[in-house]
Amino acid sequence: MEDPRIRAALERGWIEPQVVQALRSSVPAQALWGALCQRYPRLRDLGQSSAGGPLAGAAEVAPTVALPSGSGRVAEAASAELRERAAQAYQLARAEDPRFAPHAQVVLQTLHELGRGGMGVVHRVRDARLGREAALKLLTSERAQPELIARFLREAELTASLDHPAIPPIYEAGTLANGQPFLLMKVIEGQPFSEVLRAAGERPRGRELRELLEVVVKVGEAVAHAHGRGVLHRDLKPANVMVGALGEVMVVDWGLARRVDEPDAPEAADGAAPVSDGLTQVGAVLGTPGYLPPEQADGARVDARADVFALGAILTEVLTGAPPVTGATVTNKLAATLQGKIAAPRDRRRDVPPALDAIARRALAGDPSERTQTAAAFVDDLRAFLADEPVSVYREGPLGRARRWGRRHPALAAVLGVTLAGGLVFGGVTAALLGRASSERALREAAEVAKEHAEAMKA
Question: Residue 65: pLDDT above 50?
């Protein structure tokens, strides 16, 4: 009986029939496969189990990732024609890209599907070698295009170069028997930050607001780490942030990431096409409208400041319930972004703290040179706000400084309040304002100062 591996190799054109015929006449049948592997090293990629036979549950050829029979199917439903086209694309990429090199055998038990999008499907699996659960991400056949296959594997390559608590580690990457790429990564427990924000509503306050801001700080720290390693994310948004029950944060979906010094790939030049949930490819534009800066919406080359803009967009959504750019369609959002119709928090809600508005507003500057220049600087300002310290992008008035001082030194503030509230401070400020002019505007300013002073004394 003919070895199924030899039959598969012949069908794929990996070996020549005359060579097989010649070897059959000179070597024992049980040694034929080994002799062929010596002549054609790529045949080793077809693999065998440790017992010497094809892996259970494998398709035509034993896969790098073996799915035992009875464990559940991982392959997505697709037409035979689509699967064949995908297999051809996978095999071509496998032959030309070193990232498709064979890997050690991994045996996984499929537990259940975690989710799927336009780019791929993710399953929860159990690694039989190490006894741990992991997330298996597979590129769908519908996305079996050379540039998308390369992007899928680049996600593994770039993510593996990062080492941060808020960036999920990659355990393994490789291909199935048909060349279908896979990533094996840490299972992320929790829910998308987008769902957390939806539950919080448009006006989070107090402790809830503080917890949301701390999530943004952790996202910014992860992005700053990636930038320090020379990696841009290019698709930051609440849906790409996972939040655990204990407050742990993970920045996920690095599929659009690239190195700072890497030339932009021509992968988005094929016209408008949906890539994943909320992720859009229009002309040469990659990213999510509503969160991407004007230069990215214009298809221009971007740097770390594009991710800073996205951090400002996430902060704006935390404070107002919506990203800074909204619209009925992708085209509307891109047009609004290019026209500079970008709403900072206090453009929508006047009760947003001015310092927080300033942090978001500076990050959302349309001109990259006027934007907060680094993710680290963005994080520093958010940390300062949370610590009740001055932020670098907001010039605070004397009453604001007095309020902060009073919150940090309540006992002294109480003593000084009794002494000064009725006369020295309030009277001096009011007199200065009234002395400027006797106009109605000056009187309104005086009344506003009085109100702020009263609030400061209550704080």
Answer: no
